[in-house]
Amino acid sequence: MEYKVITKDGRAKRAEMKTVHGTIQTPVFMNVGTVGAIKGAVSTDDLRQIGTQVELSNTYHLHVRTGDKLIREFGGLHRFMNWDRPILTDSGGFQVFSLTSLRKIKEEGVYFNSHIDGRKIFMGPEESMQIQSNLGSTIAMAFDECPPSHADEQYIRNSVERTTRWLARCKEEMDRLNALPDTINREQLLFGINQGGVVDSIRTWHADVIREMDLDGYAVGGLAVGESHEEMYHVLDVTVPHLPEEKPVYLMGVGTPANILEAVDRGVDFFDCVYPSRNGRHGHVYTNHGKLNLFNRKYELDARPIEEGCGCPACRSYSRAYIRHLLKAKEMLGMRLCTLHNLYFYNTMMEEIRDAIEEHRYADYKMRKLAGMEGSQE
């Protein structure tokens, strides 16, 4: 891997990251395909067409459904899903947070009951690395626990200390796997995850500790899980300066266009979120003038595209009225077109962000973008 900061505008970074599966221009939004596909019937050919740089899949979900060993037989996730650009795999750690009633956390790892069929599963740092190695992703995420942001401070401290021990085990196991001659991607990268809820002292302590481990990149996790936007931005203000500037920074699971614009201004490179695809499947589409709900009756005879001047496949060919008709008729094409539009909107916004940073006009761009999207035309 080679990560190079091209220029800065304030704290906003414009960088590029060379990987074995191609170069990533940052800041970047990773399109979320949890089980190796974007929900909404979006293909990898579609992803290329709408300017996707990185696809994100989930270790836990691919492990319990289809299975990483089967995917390894196909030569890894890239070949399995016909995607020749970078893939980031989330470690499964977030499921420790989200499957509260189905798991038990121990020092060795986490005992799950599968949300699919109830069967017992164990996943620890070594198992997560082995699964991700079988998938052959470009970037593997370290296995961690995501404690609730407003949990008891002592619980958060204990959790973060265990996550730190898990990270050391992840690094050791990945080094071992990457040295094996039959490993699918021997250039697989490892990102560590900073945790600490909304407790400044734990966040900064953890950032200081993990930066000394010389990882390929660093994520800020445990946000967008119940805290306010102001608390999220404060955590970034406090934490990001403690992470190495010469390495990429990834804000996990975030977020809205406004969240991304604010986080870029705080030095973040990588983003992912299910919002564009999830909202698209429910007929909610993003525009530069606010979000639209295409189920609303006022679009019944609206011959305009979702957004004038948009180059996405939906806006190039179809009207709001037709897409509304598809949604009302529960035709999959309606959800597909809305999802494509939203992902295109996010990918295009990231391109605009990169241009604005390069031209040292990011503050003005952010102000205008936020002002334009404040209105809601729902």
Automatic annotation (TrEMBL):
Domain of life: Bacteria
Pathway(s) where this gene product acts: tRNA modification; tRNA-queuosine biosynthesis
Residue ranges annotated for the tRNA-guanine(15) transglycosylase-like domain, each copy included: 11-370
GO cellular component: cytosol
Cofactor needs: Zn(2+)
EC number of the protein: 2.4.2.29
Top-level enzyme category: transferase
Annotated binding of substrate, by residue: D90, S91, G92, G93, F94, D144, Q195, G222
UniProt-listed SUPFAM superfamilies: tRNA-guanine transglycosylase
GO MF term set: metal ion binding; tRNA-guanosine(34) queuine transglycosylase activity
Region (RNA binding) location: 253-259
Biological process terms in GO annotation: tRNA queuosine(34) biosynthetic process
KW Metal-binding (keyword) present: yes
Signal peptide span: none
Record note on cofactor: Binds 1 zinc ion per subunit.
Positions annotated as active site in the UniProt record: D90 (proton acceptor), D272 (nucleophile)
Coiled coil (UniProt feature): none
Keywords: Glycosyltransferase, Metal-binding, Queuosine biosynthesis, Transferase, tRNA processing, Zinc
Pfam families: TGT (PF01702)
Record field: catalytic activity: 7-aminomethyl-7-carbaguanine + guanosine(34) in tRNA = 7-aminomethyl-7-carbaguanosine(34) in tRNA + guanine
Protein family membership: Belongs to the queuine tRNA-ribosyltransferase family.
NCBIfam families tied to this protein: Q_tRNA_tgt, tgt_general
Subunit structure comment from the entry: Homodimer. Within each dimer, one monomer is responsible for RNA recognition and catalysis, while the other monomer binds to the replacement base PreQ1.
Function: Catalyzes the base-exchange of a guanine (G) residue with the queuine precursor 7-aminomethyl-7-deazaguanine (PreQ1) at position 34 (anticodon wobble position) in tRNAs with GU(N) anticodons (tRNA-Asp, -Asn, -His and -Tyr). Catalysis occurs through a double-displacement mechanism. The nucleophile active site attacks the C1' of nucleotide 34 to detach the guanine base from the RNA, forming a covalent enzyme-RNA intermediate. The proton acceptor active site deprotonates the incoming PreQ1, allowing a nucleophilic attack on the C1' of the ribose to form the product.
Name of the protein described by the UniProt record: Queuine tRNA-ribosyltransferase
